[in-house]
């Protein structure tokens, strides 16, 4: 665009749109849209409506662990050799990646508002379908197959929420007061996801206390079914939303996207953000193995489900302090430096935990639990809060959803790899190593 100006040529609108800053001048005061007369509270509420449904996504992703534990206890024989049951925890990753890529494109083509409405509808439908999964003639195998199938589509709905909610929250947060824009974005995205993880452990804890372990069928179905509450309550407000001003300014649904220019302009940023997201999700899911160390050390064999879920809730709570402080840190330090500080400090704690694992554990589970909690909090303070923030703010509005969707999908692939890495490494590396040395 600068070359065109120097040569006195007319600037191509497509090039101007691609090279627009991700956020800068207040588009709310642009003469094409008039003065924005909304109060600050109304602007913040708009951002919340865009992003807060991610709480439900965190809840749905977290609560499946509880459901798997209950189903395995209720039907030990049926789940022992069930392929559907074995993939129940991981099948949603596939749907999530497809949903992120698909709706990254859709929200750039049909708009943030209609993308959010469709994503919310899908989330409500497939959450309800999972809660009501049944097999033909009451077959347990059929129920497990149906649940696995519905979880795939639920994963797609969860993936759909990420780019549409984040793109919309990014653009509406730019219309709020300067100095708190990053904090409000993080507060309605990553902080809500983490809160969803906490509720995904806390809700079944409460349900077990209410229904007791004699009515676990009601517990697991209600655990899943309550995931519809947040998206259902937000549906009306999302219908009433208007498109963010930044999206309108970039041409909205009528914009023609010059993909070759987009690739030349953003491929380096997209590659860097995607790699960081992949590594962070891989490591955070792989380090989840320490969570089982805490619960197995604290709880004796045969402990009640209420105690197990109570400790799971405690471990998930450790995410919240880091996510909360990181929201303000992204404004104080800037997203890039906040991410770097968080990664550096988390790496120090992580290497310390791995290097002195046995020594720390022998000194008492309390100290290990606190250190693990600090590790989780630092992860959320740095990369957890800021990777998505940077991804949502680093491109033009006309491709923001696709940019974010691709980066988030690669991050989710890293999460899947980190989720299966401990078991795969044990079967194919550690186990072989031990057997070889024992044979000698």
Plain-language structure description:
It is globular and about 60 Å long. With 440 residues, it is mainly alpha-helical. It has a single domain, classed as Growth Hormone, Chain: A (Up-down Bundle). It is 78% helix and 0% strand. The model is unreliable at 1-15, 21-34 and 430-440 (pLDDT under 50).
Outline of this structure?
By secondary structure, the chain is mainly alpha-helical. The protein contains 22 helices and no strands.
How does the SSE layout of this entry go?
Elements: H1 2-6, H2 13-18, H3 40-51, H4 54-74, H5 76-80, H6 83-86, H7 91-109, H8 112-131, H9 140-173, H10 181-188, H11 190-211, H12 216-225, H13 229-239, H14 245-249, H15 259-286, H16 289-298, H17 305-317, H18 319-332, H19 335-355, H20 357-362, H21 365-393, H22 400-439
Question: Top keywords for this entry?
Answer:
Growth Hormone, Chain: A; transport; carboxylic acid transmembrane transporter activity; 440 residues; mainly alpha; 0% strand; disordered C terminus
Largest sheet: none
Mean pLDDT figure = 83
Question: What is the percent of helical residues?
Answer: over 70%
For the record, the CATH architecture stands as Up-down Bundle
* SS elements, strand count: 0
Top CATH class: Mainly Alpha
CATH homologous superfamily grouping: MFS general substrate transporter like domains
What oligomeric state do the depicted chains represent?
A: single chain
Secondary-structure element string:
HHHHHHHHHHHHHHHHHHHHHH
Any low-confidence stretches, pLDDT <50, length ≥5? 1-15, 21-34, 430-440
**Structural class designation:** mainly alpha
Please give the count of helices.
22
């Amino acid at each position: 665009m600068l070359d065109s100006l120097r040569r006195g040529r007319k600037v191509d609108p497509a090039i101007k749109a691609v090279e627009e800053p991700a956020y800068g001048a207040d588009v709310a005061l642009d003469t094409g849209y008039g003065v924005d007369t909304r109060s600050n509270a109304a602007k913040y509420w708009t951002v919340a409506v865009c992003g807060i449904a991610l709480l439900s996504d965190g809840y749905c992703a977290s609560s499946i662990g509880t459901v798997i534990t209950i189903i395995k206890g209720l039907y030990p024989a049926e789940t022992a050799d069930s392929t559907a049951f074995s993939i129940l925890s991981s099948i949603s990753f596939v749907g999530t990646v497809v949903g992120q890529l698909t709706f990254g494109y859709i929200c750039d083509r049909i708009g943030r508002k209609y993308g959010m409405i469709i994503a919310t509808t899908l989330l409500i439908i497939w959450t309800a379908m999972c809660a009501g999964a049944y097999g033909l003639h009451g077959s347990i195998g059929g129920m497990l197959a149906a649940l696995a199938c519905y979880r795939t589509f639920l994963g797609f709905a969860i993936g759909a929420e990420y780019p549409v909610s984040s793109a919309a929250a990014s653009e509406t947060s730019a219309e709020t007061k300067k100095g708190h824009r990053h904090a409000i974005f993080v507060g309605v995205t990553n902080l809500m996801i983490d809160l969803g993880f906490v509720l995904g452990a806390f809700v079944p804890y409460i349900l077990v206390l209410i229904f007791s372990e004699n009515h676990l069928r009601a517990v697991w179905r209600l655990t899943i079914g309550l995931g519809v509450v947040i998206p259902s309550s937000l549906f009306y407000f999302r219908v009433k939303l208007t498109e963010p001003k930044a999206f309108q300014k970039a041409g909205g649904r009528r914009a023609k996207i010059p993909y070759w220019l987009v690739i030349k302009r953003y491929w380096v940023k997209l590659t860097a953000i995607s790699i960081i997201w992949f590594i962070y999700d891989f490591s955070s899911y792989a380090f989840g193995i320490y969570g089982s160390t805490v619960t197995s050390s604290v709880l004796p064999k045969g402990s009640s489900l209420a105690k197990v879920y109570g400790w799971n809730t405690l471990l998930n709570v450790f995410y919240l302090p880091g996510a909360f402080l990181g929201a303000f840190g992204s404004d104080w330090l800037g997203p890039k430096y906040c991410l770097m500080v968080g990664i550096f400090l988390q790496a120090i704690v992580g290497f310390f935990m791995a290097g002195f694992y046995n020594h720390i554990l022998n000194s008492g589970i309390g100290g290990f639990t606190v250190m693990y909690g600090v590790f989780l909090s630092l992860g959320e303070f740095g990369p957890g809060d800021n990777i998505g923030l940077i991804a949502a703010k680093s491109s033009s509005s006309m491709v923001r959803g696709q940019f974010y969707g691709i980066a988030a999908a690669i991050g989710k692939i890293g999460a899947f790899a980190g989720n299966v890495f401990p078991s795969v490494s044990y079967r194919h590396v550690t186990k072989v190593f031990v057997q070889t040395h024992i044979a000698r």
